[in-house]
Amino acid sequence: MHSFRYVKDQLQCEDVILADLVKKHGTPLYVYSQATLSDHFTKLDQALAPLDHLICFAMKSNSNLAVIRTLADLGSGFDTVSAGEIRRVIAAGGDPRKCVFAGVGKTEEEIAFALDQSIYSFNVESEAELGRISRVAVKRRKIAPIAVRVNPNVDAGTHAKITTGTYENKFGIAFEEIEGVYARASRLPNLRLRGLQMHIGSQLTEVKPFAFSVDKVAPLVARLNGKYGFDFFSIGGGIGIVYKDALASGSEGWWKTPTGRRILTPSTYAETLVPKLKSLGLRILLEPGRFLTGNAGALVTRVEYIKKTGKKNFVIVDAAMNDLIRPAFYDSYHEIVPLGRRGGKTVPSDVVGPICESGDYFAKDRPLPKVGEGDCLVLLSAGAYGSVMGSNYNSRSLPPEILVNGRKASVVRRRQAIPEVWAGEKLAAWQGRKSKA
Ligand SMILES: *Cc1c(COP(=O)(O)O)cnc(C)c1O
Question: Which of 99, 223, 319, 390 has a Cα-to-Cα distance from 343 of 20 to 30 A?
Fold first, then answer.
Protein backbone atom coordinates (compact mmCIF):
# COMPACT_ATOMS: atom_id res chain seq x y z
CA MET A 1 0.00 0.00 0.00
CA HIS A 2 1.07 3.54 -0.51
CA SER A 3 -0.83 6.77 -0.49
CA PHE A 4 -0.07 8.40 -3.85
CA ARG A 5 -3.00 8.13 -6.26
CA TYR A 6 -5.11 10.05 -8.71
CA VAL A 7 -8.42 11.32 -7.43
CA LYS A 8 -10.44 13.02 -10.17
CA ASP A 9 -7.31 13.14 -12.34
CA GLN A 10 -5.37 15.06 -9.68
CA LEU A 11 -2.44 13.34 -8.00
CA GLN A 12 -2.89 13.22 -4.24
CA CYS A 13 -0.76 12.17 -1.30
CA GLU A 14 -3.33 10.82 1.15
CA ASP A 15 -6.05 13.50 1.11
CA VAL A 16 -3.82 16.33 0.00
CA ILE A 17 -3.78 17.46 -3.63
CA LEU A 18 -0.16 17.78 -4.69
CA ALA A 19 -0.93 20.73 -6.96
CA ASP A 20 -2.01 22.68 -3.86
CA LEU A 21 1.33 21.94 -2.19
CA VAL A 22 3.14 23.11 -5.31
CA LYS A 23 1.19 26.37 -5.31
CA LYS A 24 2.19 26.97 -1.73
CA HIS A 25 5.75 25.71 -1.62
CA GLY A 26 7.02 25.73 -5.20
CA THR A 27 9.22 23.11 -6.82
CA PRO A 28 11.30 21.03 -6.53
CA LEU A 29 9.50 19.58 -3.54
CA TYR A 30 9.69 16.34 -1.58
CA VAL A 31 6.43 14.98 -0.20
CA TYR A 32 6.15 12.11 2.31
CA SER A 33 3.10 10.17 3.44
CA GLN A 34 2.87 9.42 7.14
CA ALA A 35 0.16 6.81 6.51
CA THR A 36 2.48 4.91 4.16
CA LEU A 37 5.36 5.00 6.63
CA SER A 38 3.08 3.69 9.38
CA ASP A 39 1.49 1.06 7.15
CA HIS A 40 4.84 -0.36 6.05
CA PHE A 41 6.23 -0.42 9.57
CA THR A 42 3.09 -2.03 10.98
CA LYS A 43 2.85 -4.71 8.27
CA LEU A 44 6.43 -5.79 8.87
CA ASP A 45 6.09 -5.56 12.63
CA GLN A 46 2.96 -7.72 12.62
CA ALA A 47 4.43 -10.28 10.24
CA LEU A 48 7.28 -10.74 12.73
CA ALA A 49 5.02 -10.98 15.76
CA PRO A 50 5.93 -14.67 16.40
CA LEU A 51 9.48 -13.54 17.17
CA ASP A 52 10.87 -11.33 19.90
CA HIS A 53 12.06 -8.65 17.52
CA LEU A 54 13.10 -5.04 17.12
CA ILE A 55 12.87 -3.19 13.84
CA CYS A 56 15.76 -0.74 13.63
CA PHE A 57 14.92 1.67 10.83
CA ALA A 58 18.01 2.25 8.66
CA MET A 59 17.75 5.99 8.85
CA LYS A 60 20.40 6.62 6.25
CA SER A 61 17.55 6.03 3.77
CA ASN A 62 15.65 9.08 5.06
CA SER A 63 16.71 10.90 8.18
CA ASN A 64 14.27 13.80 8.27
CA LEU A 65 13.37 14.43 11.92
CA ALA A 66 9.64 14.05 11.25
CA VAL A 67 10.17 10.70 9.52
CA ILE A 68 12.30 9.50 12.45
CA ARG A 69 9.65 10.66 14.88
CA THR A 70 6.86 8.91 12.97
CA LEU A 71 8.71 5.61 13.26
CA ALA A 72 9.90 6.21 16.84
CA ASP A 73 6.27 6.72 17.87
CA LEU A 74 5.48 3.28 16.41
CA GLY A 75 8.19 1.70 18.58
CA SER A 76 10.97 1.57 16.02
CA GLY A 77 14.63 1.47 16.88
CA PHE A 78 17.27 2.91 14.56
CA ASP A 79 20.20 1.63 12.55
CA THR A 80 22.62 4.54 12.59
CA VAL A 81 25.94 5.04 10.80
CA SER A 82 27.39 8.15 12.44
CA ALA A 83 27.27 10.18 15.63
CA GLY A 84 25.29 12.70 13.59
CA GLU A 85 22.55 10.15 13.00
CA ILE A 86 22.40 9.24 16.69
CA ARG A 87 22.09 12.95 17.47
CA ARG A 88 19.28 13.19 14.94
CA VAL A 89 17.39 10.41 16.72
CA ILE A 90 17.74 12.35 19.97
CA ALA A 91 16.73 15.62 18.26
CA ALA A 92 13.61 13.90 16.91
CA GLY A 93 12.63 12.66 20.37
CA GLY A 94 13.68 9.05 19.73
CA ASP A 95 15.48 6.75 22.15
CA PRO A 96 19.26 6.30 21.67
CA ARG A 97 19.03 3.09 23.69
CA LYS A 98 17.22 1.62 20.69
CA CYS A 99 20.03 2.60 18.31
CA VAL A 100 22.55 0.28 16.77
CA PHE A 101 25.66 1.92 15.40
CA ALA A 102 27.06 0.50 12.14
CA GLY A 103 29.73 1.59 9.68
CA VAL A 104 33.33 0.70 8.84
CA GLY A 105 34.96 3.93 10.02
CA LYS A 106 33.71 4.87 13.49
CA THR A 107 35.96 7.51 15.04
CA GLU A 108 36.99 7.58 18.72
CA GLU A 109 34.78 10.61 19.30
CA GLU A 110 31.80 8.84 17.76
CA ILE A 111 32.38 5.72 19.84
CA ALA A 112 32.66 7.80 23.02
CA PHE A 113 29.46 9.66 22.18
CA ALA A 114 27.56 6.44 21.43
CA LEU A 115 28.77 4.90 24.72
CA ASP A 116 27.62 7.96 26.64
CA GLN A 117 24.18 7.62 25.04
CA SER A 118 23.93 3.93 26.09
CA ILE A 119 23.17 2.68 22.59
CA TYR A 120 21.83 -0.84 22.08
CA SER A 121 24.86 -2.18 20.23
CA PHE A 122 27.88 -1.36 18.11
CA ASN A 123 27.85 -3.35 14.88
CA VAL A 124 31.56 -3.92 14.52
CA GLU A 125 33.18 -4.21 11.11
CA SER A 126 36.83 -5.07 11.91
CA GLU A 127 39.19 -6.33 14.63
CA ALA A 128 40.90 -2.95 14.75
CA GLU A 129 37.54 -1.42 15.60
CA LEU A 130 36.98 -3.98 18.40
CA GLY A 131 40.26 -2.91 19.94
CA ARG A 132 39.36 0.75 19.65
CA ILE A 133 35.90 0.33 21.17
CA SER A 134 37.43 -1.62 24.07
CA ARG A 135 40.02 1.12 24.71
CA VAL A 136 37.45 3.91 24.61
CA ALA A 137 35.14 1.94 26.90
CA VAL A 138 37.93 1.36 29.45
CA LYS A 139 38.78 5.07 29.43
CA ARG A 140 35.16 6.03 30.03
CA ARG A 141 34.53 3.22 32.52
CA LYS A 142 31.69 1.87 30.41
CA ILE A 143 30.79 -1.56 29.06
CA ALA A 144 30.35 -1.50 25.30
CA PRO A 145 27.67 -3.81 23.87
CA ILE A 146 28.91 -5.22 20.57
CA ALA A 147 27.89 -7.44 17.67
CA VAL A 148 30.34 -8.35 14.96
CA ARG A 149 29.14 -8.03 11.40
CA VAL A 150 29.61 -11.30 9.58
CA ASN A 151 30.10 -11.27 5.85
CA PRO A 152 28.34 -14.48 4.82
CA ASN A 153 29.76 -14.35 1.28
CA VAL A 154 26.34 -14.54 -0.30
CA ASP A 155 25.72 -12.77 -3.59
CA ALA A 156 22.43 -10.96 -3.20
CA GLY A 157 22.19 -10.61 -6.98
CA THR A 158 21.48 -6.90 -6.79
CA HIS A 159 23.22 -3.83 -8.23
CA ALA A 160 27.01 -3.81 -7.67
CA LYS A 161 26.87 -0.57 -5.67
CA ILE A 162 24.37 -2.05 -3.20
CA THR A 163 25.70 -5.59 -2.81
CA THR A 164 27.44 -5.88 0.54
CA GLY A 165 27.56 -9.56 1.50
CA THR A 166 30.40 -10.90 -0.64
CA TYR A 167 34.16 -10.89 -0.04
CA GLU A 168 34.53 -8.38 -2.87
CA ASN A 169 33.40 -5.51 -0.64
CA LYS A 170 34.55 -3.69 2.45
CA PHE A 171 31.82 -4.77 4.86
CA GLY A 172 31.98 -7.18 7.79
CA ILE A 173 34.35 -9.99 8.70
CA ALA A 174 34.63 -13.21 6.68
CA PHE A 175 32.37 -16.03 7.84
CA GLU A 176 35.31 -18.39 8.41
CA GLU A 177 37.08 -15.91 10.70
CA ILE A 178 34.18 -14.99 12.96
CA GLU A 179 34.70 -17.55 15.75
CA GLY A 180 38.35 -16.57 16.14
CA VAL A 181 37.38 -12.90 16.27
CA TYR A 182 34.82 -13.53 19.04
CA ALA A 183 37.38 -15.58 21.00
CA ARG A 184 39.81 -12.68 20.86
CA ALA A 185 37.06 -10.13 21.56
CA SER A 186 36.07 -12.08 24.68
CA ARG A 187 39.52 -11.40 26.10
CA LEU A 188 39.30 -7.64 25.53
CA PRO A 189 38.20 -5.55 28.53
CA ASN A 190 34.88 -3.74 28.80
CA LEU A 191 33.14 -5.44 25.88
CA ARG A 192 29.86 -7.28 26.16
CA LEU A 193 29.41 -9.72 23.26
CA ARG A 194 25.77 -9.13 22.73
CA GLY A 195 24.99 -10.57 19.32
CA LEU A 196 25.89 -11.10 15.70
CA GLN A 197 24.89 -8.97 12.73
CA MET A 198 24.75 -9.31 8.96
CA HIS A 199 23.42 -7.36 5.98
CA ILE A 200 23.79 -8.79 2.50
CA GLY A 201 22.61 -5.98 0.27
CA SER A 202 19.82 -3.70 -0.75
CA GLN A 203 16.74 -3.81 -2.98
CA LEU A 204 16.37 -7.58 -2.78
CA THR A 205 13.11 -8.57 -4.43
CA GLU A 206 13.23 -12.27 -3.60
CA VAL A 207 13.41 -14.06 -0.28
CA LYS A 208 15.96 -16.66 -1.45
CA PRO A 209 19.19 -14.78 -0.67
CA PHE A 210 17.82 -13.92 2.80
CA ALA A 211 16.88 -17.55 3.43
CA PHE A 212 20.23 -18.77 2.14
CA SER A 213 22.22 -16.45 4.37
CA VAL A 214 20.10 -17.16 7.46
CA ASP A 215 20.55 -20.92 6.84
CA LYS A 216 24.28 -20.39 6.57
CA VAL A 217 24.70 -18.12 9.59
CA ALA A 218 22.10 -19.38 12.11
CA PRO A 219 24.20 -22.42 13.21
CA LEU A 220 27.13 -20.07 13.82
CA VAL A 221 24.88 -17.79 15.90
CA ALA A 222 23.71 -20.79 17.94
CA ARG A 223 27.31 -21.85 18.65
CA LEU A 224 28.42 -18.35 19.63
CA ASN A 225 25.31 -17.89 21.75
CA GLY A 226 26.22 -21.08 23.62
CA LYS A 227 29.65 -19.65 24.42
CA TYR A 228 28.95 -16.00 25.07
CA GLY A 229 25.24 -15.70 25.94
CA PHE A 230 23.88 -13.48 23.19
CA ASP A 231 20.80 -11.28 23.28
CA PHE A 232 20.23 -10.84 19.57
CA PHE A 233 20.87 -11.74 15.97
CA SER A 234 20.46 -8.94 13.42
CA ILE A 235 19.56 -10.09 9.93
CA GLY A 236 20.03 -6.63 8.41
CA GLY A 237 17.87 -4.79 5.93
CA GLY A 238 17.56 -4.91 2.19
CA ILE A 239 13.91 -5.74 1.53
CA GLY A 240 13.17 -4.40 -1.95
CA ILE A 241 10.30 -2.29 -3.18
CA VAL A 242 8.35 -1.66 -6.38
CA TYR A 243 9.86 1.02 -8.61
CA LYS A 244 8.25 0.12 -11.94
CA ASP A 245 4.46 0.33 -11.80
CA ALA A 246 4.83 2.07 -8.46
CA LEU A 247 1.69 4.15 -8.84
CA ALA A 248 -0.58 1.24 -9.67
CA SER A 249 0.96 -0.99 -7.02
CA GLY A 250 -0.26 1.46 -4.40
CA SER A 251 -3.85 0.60 -5.03
CA GLU A 252 -3.22 -3.02 -5.99
CA GLY A 253 -1.97 -3.80 -2.52
CA TRP A 254 1.25 -5.28 -1.34
CA TRP A 255 3.97 -5.36 -3.91
CA LYS A 256 1.79 -6.77 -6.61
CA THR A 257 2.03 -4.86 -9.83
CA PRO A 258 -0.72 -4.82 -12.44
CA THR A 259 1.63 -6.43 -14.93
CA GLY A 260 1.78 -9.37 -12.57
CA ARG A 261 5.31 -8.96 -11.32
CA ARG A 262 5.53 -10.25 -7.78
CA ILE A 263 7.78 -8.59 -5.32
CA LEU A 264 8.80 -9.74 -1.87
CA THR A 265 6.03 -9.11 0.64
CA PRO A 266 6.46 -8.80 4.41
CA SER A 267 4.40 -11.98 4.85
CA THR A 268 6.55 -14.04 2.45
CA TYR A 269 9.64 -12.63 4.15
CA ALA A 270 8.34 -13.55 7.59
CA GLU A 271 6.84 -16.94 6.64
CA THR A 272 10.18 -18.01 5.20
CA LEU A 273 12.47 -16.61 7.87
CA VAL A 274 10.55 -16.91 11.14
CA PRO A 275 10.77 -20.76 11.31
CA LYS A 276 14.51 -20.56 10.65
CA LEU A 277 15.01 -17.98 13.40
CA LYS A 278 12.53 -19.01 16.08
CA SER A 279 14.57 -21.90 17.49
CA LEU A 280 17.54 -19.64 18.19
CA GLY A 281 15.56 -18.20 21.09
CA LEU A 282 17.14 -14.81 20.51
CA ARG A 283 15.75 -11.39 19.82
CA ILE A 284 15.84 -10.75 16.07
CA LEU A 285 16.83 -7.32 14.84
CA LEU A 286 15.96 -6.04 11.36
CA GLU A 287 17.35 -2.98 9.64
CA PRO A 288 14.95 -2.04 6.85
CA GLY A 289 15.45 1.33 5.24
CA ARG A 290 14.08 1.53 1.72
CA PHE A 291 11.20 -0.82 2.55
CA LEU A 292 9.81 1.68 5.06
CA THR A 293 10.52 4.95 3.28
CA GLY A 294 10.93 4.28 -0.45
CA ASN A 295 7.33 4.30 -1.65
CA ALA A 296 6.37 6.77 1.06
CA GLY A 297 7.96 9.71 -0.77
CA ALA A 298 7.80 11.53 -4.08
CA LEU A 299 9.72 14.37 -5.69
CA VAL A 300 7.65 16.97 -7.52
CA THR A 301 9.36 18.95 -10.25
CA ARG A 302 8.34 21.55 -12.82
CA VAL A 303 9.04 21.45 -16.54
CA GLU A 304 11.21 24.42 -17.52
CA TYR A 305 11.76 23.72 -21.21
CA ILE A 306 11.03 21.22 -23.93
CA LYS A 307 14.00 20.81 -26.22
CA LYS A 308 13.66 18.74 -29.34
CA THR A 309 16.86 17.68 -31.04
CA GLY A 310 17.03 15.53 -34.16
CA LYS A 311 16.73 12.34 -32.16
CA LYS A 312 15.39 13.26 -28.77
CA ASN A 313 12.61 14.95 -26.90
CA PHE A 314 14.26 16.45 -23.83
CA VAL A 315 12.03 17.44 -20.95
CA ILE A 316 14.17 19.80 -18.88
CA VAL A 317 12.94 20.00 -15.30
CA ASP A 318 13.86 22.09 -12.26
CA ALA A 319 14.92 19.13 -10.09
CA ALA A 320 18.35 17.67 -10.65
CA MET A 321 20.83 15.03 -9.59
CA ASN A 322 21.69 17.15 -6.54
CA ASP A 323 18.09 16.58 -5.36
CA LEU A 324 17.80 12.91 -6.37
CA ILE A 325 20.99 11.16 -7.41
CA ARG A 326 19.72 7.60 -7.70
CA PRO A 327 19.36 7.44 -11.50
CA ALA A 328 22.88 8.85 -11.98
CA PHE A 329 24.41 6.79 -9.19
CA TYR A 330 22.66 3.41 -9.45
CA ASP A 331 21.03 3.55 -12.91
CA SER A 332 17.81 3.38 -11.02
CA TYR A 333 14.29 3.70 -12.33
CA HIS A 334 11.68 6.06 -10.92
CA GLU A 335 8.18 6.06 -12.30
CA ILE A 336 7.32 9.55 -13.56
CA VAL A 337 3.73 10.75 -13.75
CA PRO A 338 2.14 14.13 -14.40
CA LEU A 339 0.56 16.03 -11.53
CA GLY A 340 -2.72 16.10 -13.44
CA ARG A 341 -3.64 12.88 -15.24
CA ARG A 342 -3.90 13.24 -18.98
CA GLY A 343 -4.72 10.87 -21.79
CA GLY A 344 -3.50 10.97 -25.36
CA LYS A 345 -0.40 9.65 -27.04
CA THR A 346 2.85 9.23 -25.15
CA VAL A 347 6.15 10.61 -26.41
CA PRO A 348 9.53 8.95 -25.71
CA SER A 349 11.18 11.56 -23.54
CA ASP A 350 14.46 12.13 -21.75
CA VAL A 351 13.74 13.81 -18.45
CA VAL A 352 16.84 15.78 -17.47
CA GLY A 353 17.88 18.34 -14.89
CA PRO A 354 19.69 21.65 -15.38
CA ILE A 355 23.05 20.54 -13.93
CA CYS A 356 26.12 20.57 -16.14
CA GLU A 357 26.69 16.82 -16.12
CA SER A 358 25.56 14.24 -18.66
CA GLY A 359 24.65 12.07 -15.69
CA ASP A 360 22.01 14.57 -14.65
CA TYR A 361 18.96 12.72 -15.92
CA PHE A 362 15.93 11.02 -14.40
CA ALA A 363 14.78 8.94 -17.34
CA LYS A 364 15.82 8.15 -20.89
CA ASP A 365 13.43 7.42 -23.77
CA ARG A 366 10.57 7.14 -21.31
CA PRO A 367 7.09 7.15 -22.82
CA LEU A 368 5.48 10.16 -21.17
CA PRO A 369 2.29 12.04 -21.86
CA LYS A 370 2.88 15.26 -23.74
CA VAL A 371 3.90 17.97 -21.27
CA GLY A 372 4.90 21.57 -21.73
CA GLU A 373 6.59 24.40 -19.90
CA GLY A 374 5.07 24.94 -16.46
CA ASP A 375 3.57 21.44 -16.12
CA CYS A 376 4.65 19.44 -13.12
CA LEU A 377 5.95 15.88 -13.05
CA VAL A 378 6.19 13.60 -10.05
CA LEU A 379 8.99 11.11 -9.48
CA LEU A 380 7.58 8.31 -7.38
CA SER A 381 9.34 6.02 -4.88
CA ALA A 382 11.73 8.84 -3.99
CA GLY A 383 11.39 8.50 -0.21
CA ALA A 384 14.54 6.42 0.27
CA TYR A 385 18.06 7.55 -0.65
CA GLY A 386 16.52 10.68 -2.15
CA SER A 387 16.62 13.85 -0.12
CA VAL A 388 19.27 12.43 2.24
CA MET A 389 21.75 12.21 -0.61
CA GLY A 390 21.05 15.80 -1.63
CA SER A 391 23.91 18.21 -2.17
CA ASN A 392 24.49 21.83 -3.06
CA TYR A 393 26.24 20.98 -6.33
CA ASN A 394 25.95 23.85 -8.80
CA SER A 395 25.10 26.08 -5.79
CA ARG A 396 21.56 24.77 -5.84
CA SER A 397 19.70 24.99 -2.55
CA LEU A 398 18.11 21.94 -0.94
CA PRO A 399 14.38 21.54 -1.62
CA PRO A 400 11.74 21.57 1.10
CA GLU A 401 10.21 18.40 2.53
CA ILE A 402 6.54 18.11 3.41
CA LEU A 403 4.96 15.46 5.62
CA VAL A 404 1.33 14.67 4.84
CA ASN A 405 -1.02 13.13 7.38
CA GLY A 406 -4.57 12.71 6.11
CA ARG A 407 -5.71 16.17 5.15
CA LYS A 408 -2.86 17.89 6.93
CA ALA A 409 0.47 18.86 5.43
CA SER A 410 3.40 20.23 7.35
CA VAL A 411 6.74 21.63 6.21
CA VAL A 412 9.27 19.34 7.88
CA ARG A 413 12.25 20.98 6.20
CA ARG A 414 12.06 24.46 4.77
CA ARG A 415 13.59 25.34 1.44
CA GLN A 416 17.21 26.30 1.96
CA ALA A 417 17.86 29.95 1.15
CA ILE A 418 20.53 30.42 -1.52
CA PRO A 419 22.97 32.36 0.75
CA GLU A 420 22.83 29.42 3.20
CA VAL A 421 24.61 27.39 0.54
CA TRP A 422 27.86 29.28 1.23
CA ALA A 423 27.07 30.38 4.77
CA GLY A 424 29.99 28.40 6.21
CA GLU A 425 32.50 29.84 3.76
CA LYS A 426 34.59 32.98 3.91
CA LEU A 427 37.41 34.62 2.05
CA ALA A 428 40.98 33.77 3.06
CA ALA A 429 42.57 36.02 5.68
CA TRP A 430 44.69 37.72 2.99
CA GLN A 431 41.81 38.43 0.64
CA GLY A 432 40.47 41.50 2.38
CA ARG A 433 36.89 42.10 3.28
CA LYS A 434 34.00 40.31 1.73
CA SER A 435 32.12 42.48 -0.70
CA LYS A 436 28.51 43.18 0.07
CA ALA A 437 27.29 41.98 -3.30
C1 LIG B 1 21.98 0.50 4.19
C2 LIG B 1 21.88 -0.53 5.25
C3 LIG B 1 20.65 -1.02 5.63
C4 LIG B 1 19.36 -0.63 4.96
O5 LIG B 1 19.28 -1.09 3.65
P6 LIG B 1 17.87 -1.00 2.89
O7 LIG B 1 18.14 -1.64 1.58
O8 LIG B 1 17.52 0.43 2.76
O9 LIG B 1 16.89 -1.76 3.69
C10 LIG B 1 20.61 -1.91 6.68
N11 LIG B 1 21.74 -2.33 7.32
C12 LIG B 1 22.95 -1.88 6.96
C13 LIG B 1 24.13 -2.34 7.70
C14 LIG B 1 23.07 -0.98 5.92
O15 LIG B 1 24.29 -0.55 5.56
Answer: 319
